[in-house]
Write a structure and sequence with these properties.
Keywords: Glycosidase, Hydrolase. It comes from Floricoccus penangensis. One of its GO terms (biological process) is carbohydrate catabolic process. One of its GO terms (cellular component) is cytosol. The chain has a single domain, classed as Alpha-Beta Barrel (TIM Barrel), CATH 3.20.20.80. It is built from 14 helices and 15 strands. The strands form 4 sheets. It has an 8-stranded parallel beta barrel with strand order 1-2-3-4-5-7-12-13, surrounded by 5 helices. A 3-stranded mixed sheet has the order 6-8-9, with helices on one face. Strands 10-11 form a two-stranded antiparallel sheet. Helix 13 links the parallel strand 12 and strand 13. Helix 8 crosses helix 11. The structure holds 2-(hydroxymethyl)phenyl 6-O-phosphono-beta-D-glucopyranoside (P53). The site of 2-(hydroxymethyl)phenyl 6-O-phosphono-beta-D-glucopyranoside has 16 residues, from loops.
């Protein structure tokens, strides 16, 4: 039995290109889905506009200007002792429209420089290929991932990246939080995951299954090609893990929770096992859902299974039986109930550290694969004191409680965990709301929800705390 975290445990931090880089038109970058999203609030998603509309504010256009400031930011990550840094490659820097045959050299060069800077500072890059930043042209021209042509576009993009960075990047993930779109009755996840706008009368469920299928096939083909380019690559999937608990021990609630988990997490089964679980195929048949699924797809899925499960963990959900005759009508936008045993953040996200231990064990039991917690964190309002200090003890408390549970899972339960990269290690634009003031960072960035501020960086109390956590390999919490 191990006493603590393994020696080579990957402590670090996580971000995504569109949420921090800015430079939305620099280096011949194309327009992405994130570039047409405005600001929302703690109670509303952001709106999606048709192209760029005059007079609207788009927070990702400048974000925190990491595009120009990355050297100074990486120096701060190094000071905290990061072993790794998770970011994404903005697809639109490499293929501005997404359907070109030749990549954009300026974009490729930017990531060469960024990864070199990480490596020079002893920080290993961990890279997501598609993190809510699909080329917008693929939405307007092809209808996003509902169209099978996007499989080839993604595979081309992935192949270019694998070849170019084969000696700089070892850890990869294909599609960020691919399972968010299980919430297909709202408009946010289908757009950010897959570039899908639903129209009146669309069969949302069927379209979601097709888009997700196309992504699962694209991911598998990419994994296979990656291994031919460098057999040492480690390629993961990326799942948004919000375990769904039954609200009571009423057998109907238990079954409802079990089926909701299946509908929200079958994506992992396909990534890990290379085929669909029977309950999904039966669900399609019962509802008359038709998914274009070729013999070649079947082969590709089996040939491109992932090496590890990357996942985000912020919160848990709870559910009651919704009264429907079928347990296959889980509607994430309606069926979840409040868990009376846990508190929630100012954005209503339920805080549940034990849920992280539960999730690690659930994944271990289900899939028996190495895991990587590639996001976890507390979005909160921070206050800058007169002397410039930022006392974010609530964030320290959240992270400490989660790391304690993660440690129990490793030490007592023996789960196979590779690393931990808290989300938004430097303040950045929220994906869900577009706010700057929903902050996750150890590093404060002076910018508000309207886009005003100096963009200056400052260390929060959590900065010094996390440095000590890493230095002690998780012993000093
Ligand atoms: P924000 C929903 C539920 C769980 C994770 O989210 C989610 C979302 C989408 O909002 O997204 C992930 O910024 C995502 C990151 C995102 C982070 O969690 O809405 O991978 O891009 O920023 C936090 O507070």
């Amino acid at each position: 039995m191990s006493k603590g975290f393994p020696k080579d445990f990957l402590w670090g931090g996580a971000v995504a290109a569109h949420q921090l880089e800015g430079g939305w038109q620099e280096g011949s970058k194309g327009l992405s889905v994130a570039d047409v999203m405005t600001v929302g609030s703690s109670t509303s998603y952001r709106s999606i506009t048709e192209g760029i509309v005059d007079g609207e504010y788009y927070p990702n256009h400048e974000a925190i200007d990491f595009y120009h400031k990355y050297k100074e930011d990486i120096a701060l990550f190094k000071e905290m002792g990061f072993k790794c840094f998770r970011t994404s490659i903005a697809w639109t820097r490499i293929f501005p429209n997404g359907d070109e045959t030749e990549p954009n050299e300026e974009g490729l060069q930017f990531y060469d420089d960024l990864f070199d800077e990480c490596l020079k500072n002893g920080i290993e890059p961990v890279v997501t290929l598609s993190h809510f930043e699909l080329p917008y042209h693929l939405v307007t021209e092809y209808g996003g991932f509902r169209n099978r042509k996007l499989i080839d576009f993604f595979v081309r993009f992935a192949t270019v990246c694998f070849k170019r960075y084969k000696d700089k990047v070892k850890y990869w993930m294909t599609f960020n939080e691919i399972n968010n779109q299980a919430n297909y009755n709202e408009d946010f996840a289908p757009f950010t995951n897959s570039g899908i706008y639903y129209k009146e009368g669309d069969n949302r469920e069927e379209i979601m299954y097709q888009a997700a299928h196309n992504e699962l096939v694209a991911s598998a083909r990419a994994v296979k090609i990656a291994k031919e380019i460098n057999p040492d690559f480690e390629i993961g999937c990326m799942i948004a893990m919000c375990p769904i608990y039954p609200a009571t021990c009423n057998p109907k609630d238990i079954l409802m929770a079990q089926k909701a988990m299946e509908l929200r997490y079958y994506f992992t089964d396909v990534h890990v096992h290379g085929f669909y679980p029977q309950y999904i195929l039966n669900n399609w048949e019962r509802k008359g859902i038709s998914v274009e699924f070729t013999e070649q797809d079947k082969k590709d899925l089996l040939d491109g299974t992932v090496d590890y499960i990357g996942f985000s963990y912020y919160m848990s959900f709870a559910i009651k039986h919704n009264g429907s005759d079928s347990y296959y009508d889980y509607d994430e936008s309606k069926d979840l109930v409040k868990n009376p045993y846990v508190q929630a953040s100012d954005w209503g996200w339920q805080i549940d550290p034990e849920g992280l231990r539960y999730s690690l064990n659930w994944f271990q039991d289900m899939y028996n694969k190495p895991m990587f917690i590639v996001e976890n964190g507390f979005g909160a309002y921070d206050k800058v004191e007169e002397d410039g200090s930022i006392h974010d003890e609530y964030r320290i408390e959240y992270l400490k409680a989660h790391i304690e549970q993660m440690k129990l899972a490793v030490v007592e339960d023996g789960v196979d965990l590779m690393g931990y990269t808290p989300w938004g290690c430097i303040d950045l634009v929220s994906a869900g709301t577009g706010e700057m003031e929903k902050r996750y960072g150890f590093i404060y960035v002076d910018k508000d929800n309207k886009g005003e501020g100096s963009l200056d960086r400052a260390k929060k109390d959590s900065f010094y705390w996390y440095k000590d956590v890493i230095e002690s390999n998780g012993e000093n919490l």
